[in-house]
Amino acid sequence: MMVPTADTYKHRYCLEMLLSIQKPVFFTGQTGVGKSVTVMNTMQILSVVKEESTVMPLVGVNINFSAQTDSKRVQQSIEEKLEKSRTAFAAPPGKRVAIFIDDINMPSVEEYGAQPPIELLRLLIDKSGMYDRKEWEWKGVNGCTLVAAAAPPSGGRAVLTPRFTTHFNVFCMPQATQGVLAKIFSSILDGFLKGNQFQEGALSSSLAIIDSTIEIYHKISEELRATPAKFHYMFNLRDVSKVIQGILMSSPKSIQTAD
């Protein structure tokens, strides 16, 4: 579920414009700011095009990177969504393809600083093609655009080579303000409470639940920061979502009884 805000709308608009001219896009920002949700929601919207529109529908390819991701599996995932000919890979007829790579800076770094999956994607952007691993022949890739998302380098996240990132239009998604967070989660919770016909007492407590949860989150984030001597779990907006999700999974009877 996605609740639109001013920031998500602006980033979605920019993503739509860049995809329409096949320009690579990179979204960065702290964990939980909505990078992946914004990209996937935009790709879903673009996959359904109205009949009177002249824009071709979009086919999304979602790939999640991890420390164990290798270049061979990445290439297979891309090729599976493309039409294969003797000399090239291309988007299906009448469509365009967007390859979304989430956590793109997660692959492990080799001894000499290379990340094979990243080098494969750099070759794809640089030369608009890849080598066929079976026939050892060069094949072009047409009608594809690369979209990436990643949190800033830290822990297992590596620094991406400038030779790769220079191809992207980079957007940094900011942390949501307290007012924006209240709007997002209150919209979700209010819709759930009203849709399930909760009693008035539960309905009136919605705002207090949201405000107190966000206040606790900010207090914990400020006072329980990790230090080199005492490193621990870093709290983010996903933890707030888990609290609200726990409420949504509760039955009306149990909440009304507690109220």
Characterize the structure shown:
The protein has two domains: 6-172, Rossmann fold, CATH 3.40.50.300; 178-258, no CATH class. The chain contains ten helices and nine strands. A hairpin with a 3-residue loop joins strand 3 and strand 4. The chain has a five-stranded parallel beta sheet, sandwiched between helices. A four-stranded mixed beta sheet has the order 3-4-7-6. Helix 8 (206-223) packs antiparallel against helix 9. The chain is of the alpha/beta class.
Structural class: alpha/beta
- Cα Rg: 22 Å
Give the oligomeric state of the chains in this entry, treating copies of one chain as homo and distinct chains as hetero.
Answer: single chain
CATH topology of the largest domain: Rossmann fold
CATH homologous superfamily designation of the largest domain: P-loop containing nucleotide triphosphate hydrolases
| Order of neighbouring strands in the sheet with most strands | 2-5-8-1-9
Q: Into which percent range does the helicity of residues fall? A: 40-55%
How many domains? The number is 2
In DSSP terms, counting alpha (H) and pi (I) runs of 4 or more, how many helices? Answer: 10
Tell me the strand percentage band.
15-25%
Give the low-pLDDT segments.
254-259
- Tally of strands: 9
